[in-house]
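ingest -> fold -> write
write: protein_1
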Amino acid sequence: MMYERFIKLIIESKIDSIALLSKAIRAICATVLNDEISLYNLELCLVEAVANVINHAYHRKPGNFVEVAVTIDDKHVLFQIFDTGRQSDFIQW
């Protein structure tokens, strides 16, 4: 039987808010993962993704919010990151 858990975390669009998010994500993932390398990799991936939102979508302007939804089941951890910042223009890349 699959047991699914869900939590949503919201931080302000400030780089120094990422440290608290990082600790929360590590603690949440540690409830289902006991592999230190996997925990580190998940934490790093999420920190980098949120930093990209703050740097590029919000241009480091505080007062905006980044929402991270975490869904965990017996075999998977799913992160979803939501923001209302500026969309990247991929055509220029």
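write: protein_2
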Amino acid sequence: MRHHTEIRAATPGERPEICHLIDVAFDAEPHGPSLTSPCTSVGSSAEDPHDRPDNTRILVADGKIVSVVHMAYREAHVRGARVSFGYVSMVATHPDHRRNGYMRRLMRDAEESMRDRGLCYALLMGAWDFYGGSLGWRPCDDKAPSLAWKYVARTDGLPTVSAEARMAAEADIPALAHMYDGRYAQMFGPVVRSREYWRRWSLGRPWEGSYAIVSDAAGPLGYFHTAGDEYGCEPDRGDVLDRVFLARARLAARSGEETASYYLDGADMDAFRQVFGDAPRTYVDPLGRPVTEADRDVYRLGNWAGGCGVMVRCLNRGSGILSDATTTDALTSAMARLRWTYLDADSM
């Protein structure tokens, strides 16, 4: 049966209908529901300072919204420079309207929209067997491990330290931004955060954890996210990450928690061990789920959670060190060479 279809930008008044579609579509996934709670906003648009109404694209069949794609627009740090990129999320088609090619058409439309805006590349978290092949998406770096160590430290009997942590407020945004840029601006991948981005997105979502400032008598020396997966230091305060880790545990103790969790990579483990020694640890995947030693090697950025991973699509020629990345394969090679970092605490 032939349907009359159109692809267009969603209107604000259609957001409730779109959220219902996302709930229905995600509940029908083969591996079970993939949302832990009902969808209340598309792409967290209520907090995203860079959101625009036309960031959500829909396919309408015979007057009914049956497919949706949401796009977020960001800048990434690239070794001291910046590059514009997109992040695709909330990709959904109603179960009764699948296998009609609707999502393929909508993804092509979204790519063209991002390309017209001059974005260098787009990211999404998705299944290789759907987005690969003719759609042209590739794992960002299929050889890079997507695992972090999760350390659990006890909060009793902590050593004394001349620094304490408190929850960050809007007045702390300049210090937070300075420390964040000092730690991440020379990497490839972390999201550039404007003041408004910090205010409405990073500090305005307490249900996902928030940020704390660590200070001593001389002023701020570092910060951390209470989820345990982001840390930073004042660039001119030297190597003080061990004091930041200790201040996090002391803040947890003041809140009555018996342990504090830390998600670390190899670069930060030495600072952690200075304070806590060889604390218990386990591998965790990008969703925070434990991974056994036997399964460790199969978890890659392009292959985790049943063949899903962080995918990338080249949209336009980059500049500077990305000027040769004119295809998706060339871009993934550059990501591997430049050690692309997926900082996902609250970035998308």
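write: annotation protein_2
The radius of gyration is 21 Å.
Residues 300-304 have pLDDT under 50 and may be disordered.
pipeline exit 0
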